[in-house]
């Protein structure tokens, strides 16, 4: 029963939530860094387009990764739970050095992949060093606690964010995406106000948080990473307010980091790019 | 980053969700079994009445545990987040062989205790052998994924259950309480439909699920334990339906266990009392 255990060092692969809307070109710094981590030219990338309902989403990323110059780029289509037990598909995933989940709807990822052999394989692979990236819905699905849906707005309200179990690569963060573009501070604060043990990561479009095996995050991309740290929270009124009513939060720590900025999830210290 | 790790044997203490409404008398089989596990006459029990807004909730349990015949029964009042850093209170918890959380509102537990030194201590203590029981709201708060609130009804609907992070002693189960009495099958199914990786436990009143260090559950009490196992789930339409609309689920496995019945969370096998 793992969640009650304490931290220990690991050879875990990188966990890379991307805020959506990343530049889909071969010069994208985010996609290039992901390829580089996964072995450069020798990387074996698997794309999971499950979140998307569009047929060509996987193809588009396959083209870009191929243009970047790697030989082995596979699309593994997982359209139902039976697909997630298919030995051929599992073998392709088993062979990957990097796994990339596209955008779409995170509830498609959690309802189709959750609890299947693919989910187990991805968790184990990441624990053993495989890098896992997800953009937009693919980013939301990454942590143990996933924002399933919610509404926009700057201030937290009871019920504004609906949480659901995610893939569970880490429970240290709750991730929201298209963050600045869709005004999601209120919904991320609402998600944290239920139980302020995790750190909130609000990832802007064309921006990624590279969470290393040492639990240090580095920001890459043209937008910002909003870090919401509830360590010093003195009060959350979530238990006292009616549904849809504003929530009082006292003592939230907030950081906005840009490219090159770092945040240590263990010490909860932020450093700007120059630091 | 613990949640991605795989299972391993442990000396973990028992995790004991109680469905609420247990007989508050010294002959209660549930409270006696909890005392016996915690060391019998030599047990050191700490009561956490945080979920309740009534002043005498802790006192009532203190009387019963004292009548059962143990010497050391402390109430540790945690009324705000500052209390959860109090060295005197932490020392009492540190000394416990069994911790008991009363009923009330689980959002009081998660907003006051979540992310504090008390939460860390309880997780570590349980991992090291201390038994942790909770009744009603105290039961809901136990797992990694907690049902914060929801509505009654037998069939699952989108948005029927609102999840939030709980204490995180285990992520293998999602717990609902007052189960039969308040008709909560629909809300527990809704909670599982988001991501069918966990097992749902619906605990009736005056009934407890004793989850052992070996991940085998034994049922005790006058009601039933409803086990919802989504292992064979072929389809969840949670991603496709509008808010408040019914959800299609195909392939759920359901068990109703009574006193003496067992369920193995590792193999997902149920056995009746006589088995």
TrEMBL record, chains A, B:
Its EC number is 3.4.15.6. It comes from the Bacteria. Keywords: Hydrolase, Protease, Serine protease. It catalyses: [L-4-(L-arginin-2-N-yl)aspartate](n) + H2O = [L-4-(L-arginin-2-N-yl)aspartate](n-1) + L-4-(L-arginin-2-N-yl)aspartate. Transmembrane segments: none annotated. It is an enzyme of class 3 (hydrolase). Pfam families: Peptidase_S51. Exopeptidase that catalyzes the hydrolytic cleavage of multi-L-arginyl-poly-L-aspartic acid (cyanophycin; a water-insoluble reserve polymer) into aspartate-arginine dipeptides. This is Cyanophycinase. It comes from Algimonas arctica.
């Amino acid at each position: 029963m793992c969640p009650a255990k304490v931290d220990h060092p690991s050879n875990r692969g990188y966990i890379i939530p991307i805020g959506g809307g990343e530049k889909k070109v071969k010069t994208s710094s985010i996609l290039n860094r992901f390829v580089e981590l996964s072995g450069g030219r020798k990387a074996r990338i698997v794309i999971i387009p499950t979140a998307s309902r569009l047929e060509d989403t996987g193809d588009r990323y396959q083209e870009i990764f191929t243009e970047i110059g790697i030989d082995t780029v596979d699309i593994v289509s997982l359209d139902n739970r039976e697909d997630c037990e298919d030995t051929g598909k599992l073998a392709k995933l088993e062979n990957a050095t990097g796994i990339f989940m596209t955008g779409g709807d995170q509830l498609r990822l959690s309802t189709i992949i959750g609890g299947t052999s693919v989910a187990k394989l991805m968790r184990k692979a990441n624990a053993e060093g495989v890098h896992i990236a997800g953009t937009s819905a693919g980013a939301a699905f990454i942590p143990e606690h996933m924002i399933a849906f919610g509404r926009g707005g700057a201030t937290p309200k009871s019920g504004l964010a609906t949480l659901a179990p995610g893939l569970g690569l880490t429970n240290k963060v709750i991730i929201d995406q298209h963050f600045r573009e869709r005004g999601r501070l209120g919904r991320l604060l609402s998600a944290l106000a239920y139980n302020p043990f995790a750190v909130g990561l609000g990832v802007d479009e064309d921006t990624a948080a590279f969470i290393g095996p040492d639990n240090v995050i580095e920001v890459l991309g043209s937008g910002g990473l909003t870090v919401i740290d509830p360590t010093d929270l003195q009060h959350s009124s979530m238990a006292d307010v009616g549904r849809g009513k504003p929530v009082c939060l006292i003592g939230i720590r907030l950081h906005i980091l840009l490219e090159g900025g770092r945040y240590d999830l263990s010490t909860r210290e932020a450093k700007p790019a120059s630091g």
